[in-house]
Amino acid sequence: MLVNITKYSEDISMAKVLNLNSFLLILLLVTSFVATSITGCDSGSGGGNNKTTIRGIIEEVIGGSGDVSGIRVSIFEGNRRRVSDRTNNAGEFRLTYTPDDATPRIEFEGDDFTLSRNISITRGSDVTLDEIIDTITPEIIFTEWTVEQRRLRLSSFDQVLFNSTEAVFRIDGKGNTCIRAKGESQVEITALSISLINCSEGITTSSFALVDLRADEDINLIANKDGIKSQDNSSVTLSMTLNPFDNNIFVTSNKENGIRSSGSSVVFVDPQNNCSITGAKDAVRQSGTSTVNTTTCTLSSGN
Predict the structure, then answer these.
(1) In this structure, what DSSP letter does residue 190 have?
(2) Domain residues of the chain, as ranges?
(3) Among 16-20, 158-162, 180-184, 250-254, whose mean pLDDT is lowest?
(4) How many helices (H) and strands (E) does the chain have?
(5) Structure pTM?
(6) Which one of 36, 134, 162, 188 has the fewest CB atoms closer than 10 angstroms to its CB?
């Protein structure tokens, strides 16, 4: 009997171990899913302000009553209505929410029409989105689309993805680093034009992080310290889009280096037209086995 009791006790202990291992495996999978599905990360002044506000004006409604007031404007993620507002007499609306989807659908619902289309969105941004609603064609015509993105802080598997060449994309660092990415995080922004201004450092990457900025028109980066600082096995690309309109790239460091690369990192700058990389010390400073390809850019150093 003692042998059977001992074996029974061992079986219970083994079951507990298996249950614990199963729980830890499930926890790991859930944690991994959450980490890889978050659109943004810590955007804003040190506190993780990930709310996004969309302000817009419906300038005109072509067809139907033509009235710009009382139109219901909604953001959908899948079939879920995340937020909505009704336009005032001037056609103005405002939507504030925390995005969980980088490509939601914006819908305009009037008395005699309902039109919608997908847009690209990021967490922690203030967006101006003005439009004309054509109910005859039918189509939604954006007359102004400007994204004012709060500075980006990424780690682990964080992702920030934005893809619309209709939009002007700006990051104001307000004296801090505009984009900082580490771990295996990823920033991919494709826009009409991209500006990084008032940066302490423009872009800093480490570990295996990737930052890829592409524009139809200008990419302009202005930093007080290093414009681009890549480390370890990370990579940074500033480039024209596949069908650029008038792409030029400008990287300026007021006190340090235009590009500073180390480790085995890679920096690639590929403009359509003009390009300049300017550093108060060096335009490009390399160490380790890093690679910097500035193609046709003009390099200007203060040294």
Answers:
(1) E
(2) 52-144, 150-303
(3) 16-20
(4) 1, 25
(5) 0.85
(6) 36
Q: Are 185 and 215 in contact (CB under 8 A)?
A: no
The pair of structure tokens assigned to 46 is: 């040190």
User: Which residue is it, tokens 């990370």?
Assistant: 234
pLDDT confidence of residue 49: 78
Torsion of CA 232, 188, 256, 197, to 10 degrees: -160
Length of the chain: 303
pLDDT one-digit tens code per residue, 106-128: 999 999 999 999 999 999 999 99
Residue 170: name the closest of 189, 187, 186 by CA. Answer: 189
Beta bridge partners of 260: 229, 285
Higher-pLDDT residue of 268 and 3 is 268
Angstrom distance (rounded) from CA 119 to CA 167: 10
Q: Which amino acid is at 282?
A: D
Q: For 52-144, CATH number?
A: 2.60.40.10
Helix (H, G, I), strand (E, B) or coil at 19: helix
Cα 208 to the chain's mean position, in Å? Answer: 17
Helix (H, G, I), strand (E, B) or coil at 73: strand
Task: Pick the closest to residue 279 from 205, 201, 211, 219 (CA basis).
Answer: 201
CA-wise closest residue to 251 among 267, 233, 235: 267
In three-state secondary structure terms, 33 is helix
Give the Cα separation of 223 and 258 in Å (integer): 9
3-state class (DSSP) for residue 6 = helix
- The pLDDT, as a whole number, for residue 9 is 43
User: What are the two backbone dihedrals, phi and then psi, of residue 160, each rounded to the nearest 5 degrees?
Assistant: -125, 115
Q: Hey, what amino acid is at 254?
A: N
Tokens 């370890």 — which residue? Answer: 232
Q: Work out the pLDDT band at 42, boundaries 50, 70, 90.
A: low
